[in-house]
Design a protein that fits this description.
257 residues; alpha/beta; Rossmann fold; four-stranded antiparallel β-sheet
Length: 257
């Protein structure tokens, strides 16, 4: 399988602060790759370099077969970037946001594209409402839907669930899972361990500017001592308590699926 993203020896400093110190990783096509790390680890810097918004000091990065430094225009045509905050216009309706982006990207039949995406992301009933009335999860789903216009082969999601409540987070997780099933390559940055565990085919941990581990969840688990069996009384998790109180059992089952 050909890698959709190839990164070798990526370095970046801001004045005397070394943010990336020789980062290496690959992302296979049609998979979800999670770049996991705490605040300040360099995740967003890596995304900005891969999306041509920032130049690296050293190293190489190839996205969808195009060198990021040498062919930035081709890279921008192949990718889409969704940042930490939804880039939507609150004064427009959900459909108007999608039509606007489709027109800016010179797509034919922008109305049809908007309607298809609204249906795909379960936003049809809210299509005519202004985005200011949307919940956090709806705004993020609309933001991701907008990023799919033009059918990019690679999508960068930079901490897409930051600040969202548990229900909205589950909505975004379902959306990312659907993208991967449809063959889209997703590079996801996150500081949430559960998010990486739920979504990623491979997980890389970025710490102090370096990738310190990279593998599947099973491979990462094997790095720890074997689990011991203990028989204890099982207490409900906070997630189980939340969904029990809100009464949304269907949402709970979807989150577990």
């Amino acid at each position: 399988m050909t890698a959709a993203i190839q990164v070798r020896g990526l370095e970046k400093s801001f004045k005397k602060v070394h943010v990336l110190r020789g980062v290496d990783f690959e992302v296979e096509r049609g998979t979800v790759f999670a770049l996991l790390g705490s605040n300040g680890a360099g995740k967003t810097t890596a995304i900005r370099i891969l999306s041509t918004l920032l130049k690296a000091d050293a190293g190489t990065a190839v996205v969808d077969g195009h060198d990021v430094a040498g062919r930035p225009a081709e890279v921008r045509q192949a990718i889409s970037l969704t940042g930490q905050f939804a880039a939507v216009d609150d004064k427009l309706s959900g459909r108007e946001n999608l039509v606007l982006v489709a027109r800016l990207r010179h797509q034919q039949e922008p109305g049809r594209i908007a309607d298809d995406l609204l249906a795909r992301f379960s936003l049809t009933e809210a299509a005519a409402r202004t985005v200011a009335t949307y919940s956090g999860g709806m705004r993020r789903r609309l933001d991701i839907a907008m990023s799919l216009i033009g059918k990019p082969s690679v999508i960068f999601l930079d901490e897409p669930t930051t600040g969202l409540d548990p229900e909205a987070r589950n909505e975004v997780w379902d959306t990312v899972t659907q993208l991967a099933r449809g063959g889209t390559t997703v590079l996801l940055t996150t500081q949430y361990l559960e998010e990486a565990e739920r979504l990623a085919d491979r997980i890389a941990i970025l710490h102090q500017g370096r990738i310190i581990v990279n593998g599947t969840l099973s491979e990462l688990r094997r790095m720890l001592p074997a689990a011991t069996k203990e028989y204890v009384e099982k207490q409900p998790t906070l997630e189980e308590v939340f969904f029990a109180i809100t009464g949304d059992e269907n949402q709970k089952e979807e989150a577990r699926a």
